[in-house]
Amino acid sequence: MIFHSAVKFLGCSMPPYSDEDITVEPMLFNCDYSAARRKGGPITNKFLDLLPDSWKETPLVVDTRVHMLMPGWYPAIPGWHLDDVPRTRGDHQPNFDDPLRSEHCVALVNGWLAPTEFACGNLDFSIPEKGSHIKVYESVNEQLNKLDKTKYNLVSARNDKLVIFNDRCWHRAVPATGRGWRWFGRVSRYSRYDEQCERPNKRTNALRKQTQIYLPAVEAGW
């Protein structure tokens, strides 16, 4: 299956914030635009200010997270993956034939600590069939890691610019290279909003009470 994996960096960036600012910023889960405005702090509201006007005219889902990071820690599960591909196959694996499509705008503060990486290009992967003992992302992660690096461009979200990508753009978390606090914000919009589409249709407008980091090995702690 061929994926047109691409990103678009906007001309605007998140301003700098102190660690103290980041630590007190509320974290949001599955919020609509108005709830994100009410419940979000200064960082979240600045991110929403910077969204393109066309995005503000459509129903949105807003998620934000704050991580304390140290060298080697991951702010998300490592490995190449896609965002918001419905798991509507019979084996609960990503279903690339599902007509629901999504688009995302992401921003980071202190992104230099662990900048999201994107693999950009026309990428052709063999997708495990339904019922296979091999998971879809496990298979693609292995294929992409073995792929000749001249076949795609590795793009890093390093400068805290807003970046737009869709549900066919392969990306991954990378380990932190320093100590500090990192803020992550993502705004998502969808091709449809009917009752069959659980995430975009059933927003909970919740405050996230916890987040987590990931370690490559049990001894990779303090």
How would you describe what is shown here?
By secondary structure, the protein is of the alpha+beta class. The chain has one domain. The chain has six helices and eleven strands. The strands form three sheets. Strands 2-8-5-10-4 form a five-stranded antiparallel sheet. Strands 1, 6, 7 and 9 form a four-stranded antiparallel sheet that branches. The mean pLDDT is 92.
Give short descriptive properties of this protein:
4-stranded antiparallel beta sheet, about 220 residues, about 30% strand, 5-stranded antiparallel beta sheet
Rg measurement, Å = 17 Å
Q: How many distinct helices?
A: 6
Number of strands: 11
What's the helix-strand series? EEHEHHHEEEHEEEEHE
Strand order of the largest sheet: 2-8-5-10-4
Mean pLDDT: 92
CA-CA gap between termini: 42 Å
Uncertain spans: none
As for the number of domains, it is: 1
Gross morphology is globular
- Share of residues in strands: 25-35%
- Global structural class: alpha+beta
- Major pleated sheet: 5 strands, antiparallel
Topology:
Blueprint: E1 2-5, E2 7-13, H1 19-23, E3 27-29, H2 33-39, H3 42-50, H4 53-56, E4 61-69, E5 102-109, E6 117-124, H5 136-146, E7 153-156, E8 161-166, E9 170-172, E10 180-190, H6 198-201, E11 206-208
Antiparallel strand pairs: 1-6, 2-8, 3-11, 4-10, 5-8, 5-10, 6-7, 6-9
Can you summarize this structure?
With 222 residues, this protein is α+β, with helices and mostly antiparallel strands.
